[in-house]
């Protein structure tokens, strides 16, 4: 007959139907209450491996109290009473009837090691999900004085969790999560991103010799397809040592079929005629944004993998490592971008460009000359 919660057992049952791991934990605890010596066969878990405070408290009591004599344990409930009293210090909702239920619902006490492995696997999923959530939260923390460094630290912490899970559950080759990955997030402050990228493109058009210094910047780092396309055009012209100005960039874009999205040539020319600051400064800003977006996408992918109960720890390790590789690639380019570089030489504004920048960001950049 199903156990009905008694008053004060709110901590034992959630409002929603318990997940499968809840029943696994019940079976494991029941096995250990019935045969405490089976604790010798259980490894890889601790009290915090359990999904509820009550189960954690019971496991802590079982593992800390001296084990009873098997013959005496079969005759009386003295040891169980001690477990209950110790467990209630941390979870007041525990009752004697619940311990009785745990013993009754355990199918095979000899399967305790298998139950423990299941509890360990579920705990691994929760740990991974928590670490991924922290990474995403850090990306959106606007109060951080050094966001990139802090985000990379959280990414390292997430990678450490993945490595620990891999040590416990070595991945099998070729086993990937079946979970559909979430779509890439948009850049924070999209209007600011667009404005800064426009200045980057215009400044690179004005000073094409500086493009070689930002080889770490890729088209995919830019938020708009048009901007990515124009950066491709600029880098191609500079690589071929051909003349670079708004008109040649526009022509290159047409030759590559990059204006088929309906972009107005006049608007492209206007955008490319408003340089400010330095290519390195705006390139670094774009790369920082790309790194943060990549970190968020990585975190959300791993969150989705860990939240899917169909994924095994093996799959989680493989999927998480592939996701973290994306951060590693951008991180390497960021390290190149932020390495010590000589100070920028001062240049007069190009005389062939149409007027000063009109945007807020451009005006600020022109005043500071891209001070980092």
Structural class: mainly alpha
Question: How much helix is in the residues?
Answer: 55-70%
Low-confidence stretches: 1-10, 342-360, 365-372
Mean pLDDT: 87
Number of E-state strands:
0
| Radius of gyration using CA atoms only | 30 Å
Written description of the protein model:
With 372 residues, the protein is mostly helical. The chain is 58% helix and 0% strand. The longest helix has 29 residues, at 279-307.
Briefly summarize what is shown.
Helix content is 58%, strand content 0%. With 372 residues, it is mainly alpha-helical. α1 runs parallel beside α2, α2 crosses α4 (78-88) and α8 runs parallel beside α9.
Helices and strands in order:
Layout: H1 20-34, H2 53-64, H3 70-75, H4 78-88, H5 96-105, H6 112-139, H7 147-168, H8 190-206, H9 225-239, H10 246-255, H11 265-271, H12 279-307, H13 313-337, H14 360-368
Helix pairs in contact: 1-2, 1-5, 1-6, 2-4, 6-7, 6-12, 7-12, 7-13, 8-9, 8-12, 9-10, 12-13
